[in-house]
Each structure stands twice: as C-alpha cells, then as structure tokens.
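== Sequence and structure of one protein ==
=== Format: two labelled lines per protein ===
==== Data for this protein ====
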Amino acid sequence: MQTDKTDYPFTVAGAPDYGMFNITIPRGRTLKVENSAMAYMDSSLTMKTTMGGGFKRMLSGEKLFINEFTASETDGEIGIAPGTPGDVGHLYLEDETVYLQNSSYLASSPDVQVGIDFQGFKGFFSGEKIFMISCSGTGDLWFNTFGGMIEIDVKDNYVVDTGHIVGFTGGLSYDVRSVGGLKSLFFSGEGLVCRFSGEGKIWIQTRMPPAFITWADGFRRVKQKKDD
C-alpha cells in the first residue's frame, strides 16, 4: 500500500476541514465515483451510472449507484467532494484490501473492486450498520472522514470506539465489545469498541456524526405551542 503512487494525478483543496479532490482522468481511462460526489468536471467527460454493490449495498444504507466518468478523447479533470465536513485521504492498493465505513468511500480506479462485506453480529451489536465497504485489488482509492483523520499503525492490539473508525486494512481482525461491564456501557457515556488484533493500519476520525447531532440538537429552534 502506497500513499504517493497514483495512476490518476490529483490535488487536494480545502483540507483538512473541508477537503476535496481535483483528479485528472487520463485519456481512455474511467473513474468510479460515489453518487452525488461530483462537484465539477470538464465538459469532455462522459458519465454512466452503474449498480455499485447491488441490493446488498442498498441494504447497508449506502446509495445504490456509482457513477463512472470516462475521458474518451482527451485528459479530463473532475472535482470530488464528500457530503460531510472533514479530511480526505488517498491510498494506492497493490493487490490488497481496505475496509471502509459506509459513508467514507469517495472514488476509485476501475481495477479496484468495490463490494459489501457483511460483519454479522459484530456489526449488529456495535449499534453500527452491519455492512462495510470492501475495496480490493490494485489501483487508486479516495475516501473521506467526518472531522480530522488520524492514521494508526497497529503491531499487536488496539482499541477504537466504533463511531470513530473510518477504515482498516484487511490484515486486521477485530471483536466488538463494551469498554467495561453493563454499567459502563449504559452510564459512562462510552459505547462499544472494536478491539483490533494483528498487524496493519487503522484510520480514525476525530468526530462522530451521532455525537455532533446530539450537540447540535440543543440549538434547534422549537416551535412554541399556542395556548388554547
């Protein structure tokens, strides 16, 4: 896995708070992009919509379609922007697999297979969705976070709150459990965590959407009921 190699030259703008990518699609090549992530593009690019992950991806809560942008006659530029504020990242996969949380996939080159990985009861009891996006093969992968992004090298064991996980490499295994006992689970303010084991990398985000929604709800304007 490399972070500097790419088949699609790109630059980053707005990072780390509102990151987005400007990607050059070489002539004759195609780029797979998450539905609604295109911010702008050269008029020479053509777009085709395909089923991205099929019915299983729809069940995961992700958008059902992936858009494919092709540069047929000349190189073309495209701007890719995530729907949430935060940082963005890029990896070059070399016959390997990375797992991403549902909302983190942004774009990939055609040889990267994008599918759904079923987490089984580990995902169910974590309170998270029971599907993750698996990205495997060789090629470019772009993804995003909610808040800032931190990369962690795991050599043996590591514990991460489920809501802070952006993605992890395929060489890691994990179990979902509470930090302490039942009292800690319900009253400590801490939820369930993933205990990773093995050797690989984890990407975490510095903010969690549910926590932000809870904080923002206190500022929500409430319509007062009129007295009868």
User: Anything to note?
Assistant: The helical segments are 54-59, 121-126, 182-187, 209-217.
